[in-house]
Structure formats: structure tokens, C-alpha cells
Specification:
There is one protein chain. By secondary structure, the protein is of the alpha+beta class. The protein folds into two domains: 3-139 and 156-193, Orthogonal Bundle (Endonuclease III, domain 1); 232-356, Nucleoside Triphosphate Pyrophosphohydrolase, CATH 3.90.79. The chain contains 14 helices and seven strands. It has helices at 3-20, 32-42, 47-60, 64-69, 72-79, 86-101, 110-113, 121-132, 141-151, 163-173, 179-192, 211-214, 274-286, 345-356, and strands at residues 232-242, 245-250, 261-262, 265-267, 289-302, 307-319, 329-333. Strands 1, 2, 3, 4, 5, 6 and 7 form a seven-stranded mixed sheet that branches. The protein is elongated and about 80 Å long. It starts with a helix and ends in an 8-residue tail after the last helix. The relative contact order is 0.10. Bound molecules: iron/sulfur cluster. Residues 146, 149-150, 193-194, 199-201, 204, 206-207, 210, 212-213, 218 line the site of iron/sulfur cluster.
Length: 364
């Protein structure tokens, strides 16, 4: 876009944003920590889902220092259900880095921000521009879609190697007077008007600058590469009863659900029954021998890159002491204590099987 058109584009976009933006809790603050937390939560997650989590999190941890002092288990518990738990672990780790090295103060430049755990180029640009007014354009899914349509960019939005192209385009349009406001305006346009399906072009404040709209090609942008279908993994997990309690294991921190707690179990191999698989995993991961009491049911759950089809069994402890293979820790807990621990979404679905089956912990 040439310079005069770009200036007019910015003016139209920002005027629209000031009038139509949503009143979101993180837009009511200039606190860099609150802005950082919101950007972390908003990655891969819808605004409506984030709002209650954000409010609870900021009420409990209003400063970097309070977060740094907290136990990771409490942070994960507050994040439970929001998904992508590495975000919570990294946020906690970064808060501790800041508390130890920088008096709990968030740096205002992207290079220093990117040294913190979990801060990549998107969050660094978002925090630097929104909290500190630094001239860095943000590029997320909404921004890429808007830019692809505005400038007829043929690079697929879902290919990582196309990112620099979109970043360059976003940077060329950035409003240097107020980069944070401009970045939020582009993202808001993508969220409210230039939506993936059926964009509201008739109500679009920048339609006069949009090459896809002006050439009748809106439905063909953005371009995407086809991804292979999402695989389904068969899993099995077991509720092991002993003395009125059940066994849960803590997942190693490096994993997808690191720090969370789960019933023992694992992947079902080809040709293996779910029950045999579950007993095999229990033996390997805990050293325990168990007797089967029953099959409680099956749940489905979809993660970003795979789906899970998981059977839940109930077992009675027969012999052995817990000897962990790769888990961090274990607890024998009463059924009423289970929800005090951060549990993966699959396990909340397991809970409904336990309730639905009128589950009772057997006392010896
Ligand atoms: S005119 Fe339509 S396609 Fe172009 S930016 Fe506006 S909403 Fe998106």
C-alpha cells in the first residue's frame, strides 16, 4: 500500500476501533503484567473462554511477585480447563526469572522479553507495543487473515515459513503514533468483521483499501495448505482402589500436561485389549498388581494435534508398593480430594463416568 493510502487506512481502522472495540478486562489496564497474562491466555484460546480465567488469575496473582511466590500446583489449578498448560508453566517460570533478576519488572523491549520462558515473537511484540508503545507489529491468525485479504497475499497463512512475509506487511502498515492501539485494532477487525467465514465486508471500515473486496476475491483468501487428518489414539486408564482411596500420579513437567495429575494408564497397542493394556501400564508405571472390578466407560477428547478415545477401568489393589517409572510423584486420595488436584480435561470427563456409574470407593 503506498504511503498516502496507508495513512488513510490507519485512520479509518483506528477510528472504527475506538468506536466498536469490546470492553475486555485487559483493555481496562495499563499494567504490563496484566497485558502479558492476557496475551498468554489468548494464544490459541477464544476471548469469551479467557475472560473468567483472566479475572480469577489476576485476582489471585495481581503482580509478578505474587505469581513468582506461588506454588506451580496452584497456578495449574487456576489454569485447569484452559488448555495448553505449557503456557501456565512458562508464565510461572518467567515470573520467577523476573523476580530473581529484574525486581519483578517486565522489560520493555522485545529482545529482553524473548529471553523469558514462553515469550515468543508474538507475545514479545504484543507486550512491547501494547504495554510500552514500542513499534512492533503483531502477527496472529486474525492479523494474517486480514492482511491476506487486504493485500492479496498468496502465501498460505498456516505455513510457518510464510510468517516473515506477513510480519513485513504488518510492519509496513503499523501506526507509529500508537503501535499498541493499531495492533489491537487489526486483531479486533479480524475478530469482529473480517471473520474467517462470511466476513462483514459491507460494514468494514477499510473495505475501500481491501484488494480482495475490490476484486471480488474475498472467498478465495486467505490461502491455506491442506493438513493431514488428525489421528485418533486409543488410551486406557485405571482407577485403582485401596483402603477407601484411589491412586493418582503426577505427570513429568516436560510433557504436554506436565505437573497435572492422572490415573495410571497409557496408549493401547495394536491387537491389545484396553483392559490388558491398562494392567500392563499400571504394572510398568507403578509396580502394582491389580484385579479388575469393571469397565466404567469410554470418553472422547480432542487435542489440537490428535484425538483421544479412552477407556476407564476400575481395579482393586492386589499387591505391591508404588514404585514410579517416569512420573514425578503419587498420592492415594479420597474421592472428595481428587478435584483439589489439577486434572486434565480427559479426567474431568472420567469424573462424570464415576458419578454416572454411582461410583463408590470400596473400603477393605
Ligand atoms: S472488506 Fe471484507 S475481506 Fe476486506 S478487510 Fe474488510 S471484512 Fe475483510
Amino acid at each position: 500500500m503506498e504511503a498516502t493510502a496507508a495513512a488513510a487506512f490507519r485512520e479509518c481502522l483506528v477510528r472504527w476501533y475506538l468506536e466498536h472495540r469490546r470492553k475486555l478486562p485487559w483493555r481496562q489496564t495499563v499494567d504490563p503484567f496484566g497485558i502479558w497474562v492476557s496475551e498468554v491466555m489468548l494464544q490459541q484460546t477464544q476471548v469469551d473462554t479467557v475472560i473468567p480465567y483472566y479475572r480469577r488469575f489476576m485476582a489471585r496473582f495481581p503482580t509478578v511477585g505474587r505469581l513468582a511466590e506461588a506454588d506451580l500446583q496452584e497456578v495449574l489449578k487456576l489454569w485447569e480447563g484452559l488448555g495448553y498448560y505449557a503456557r501456565a508453566r512458562n508464565l510461572h517460570r518467567a515470573a520467577r526469572q523476573l523476580a530473581a533478576d529484574n525486581h519483578g519488572i517486565l522489560p520493555d523491549d522485545v529482545i529482553a522479553l524473548r529471553r523469558l520462558a514462553g515469550i515468543g515473537r508474538y507475545i514479545a511484540a504484543a507486550v512491547a507495543s501494547i504495554a510500552f508503545g514500542r513499534p512492533h507489529a503483531v502477527v496472529d491468525g486474525n492479523v494474517k487473515r486480514v492482511l491476506a485479504r487486504l493485500s492479496l497475499i498468496n502465501a498460505p497463512v498456516n505455513r510457518a515459513d510464510a510468517y516473515p512475509l506477513f510480519e513485513k506487511e504488518a510492519q509496513s502498515l503499523l501506526d507509529l503514533k500508537d503501535p499498541g492501539r493499531f495492533n489491537q485494532a487489526v486483531m479486533e477487525l479480524g475478530a469482529l468483521v473480517c471473520r474467517p467465514k462470511r466476513p462483514h465486508c459491507d460494514a468494514c471500515p477499510v473495505a475501500a483499501f481491501c484488494r480482495a473486496y475490490l476484486t471480488g476475491q474475498v472467498s478465495t483468501y486467505p490461502k491455506r495448505v491442506c493438513k493431514p487428518p488428525i489421528p485418533t489414539r486409543a488410551m486406557a486408564a485405571g482407577v485403582i482402589q485401596r483402603g477407601g482411596r484411589v491412586l493418582i500420579l503426577q505427570i513429568p513437567l516436560e510433557g504436554l500436561l506436565g505437573g497435572f495429575w492422572e490415573f495410571p494408564g497409557g496408549a493401547v497397542e495394536a491387537g491389545e485389549s484396553s483392559e490388558a493394556s491398562c494392567i500392563r501400564h499400571i504394572r510398568k508405571k507403578t509396580g502394582l498388581s491389580v484385579d479388575t472390578c469393571g469397565h466404567l466407560g469410554r470418553i472422547r477428547h480432542a487435542y489440537t494435534h490428535f484425538k483421544v478415545l479412552a477407556d476407564l477401568f476400575i481395579f482393586r489393589w492386589r499387591s505391591g508398593s508404588v514404585c514410579l517409572d517416569d512420573h514425578l510423584d503419587h498420592r492415594w486420595v479420597g474421592p472428595e480430594e481428587l478435584t483439589q488436584y489439577p486434572l486434565p480435561k480427559t479426567h474431568h470427563k472420567f469424573m462424570s463416568l464415576l458419578v454416572g456409574q454411582d461410583f463408590r470407593i470400596q473400603r477393605p
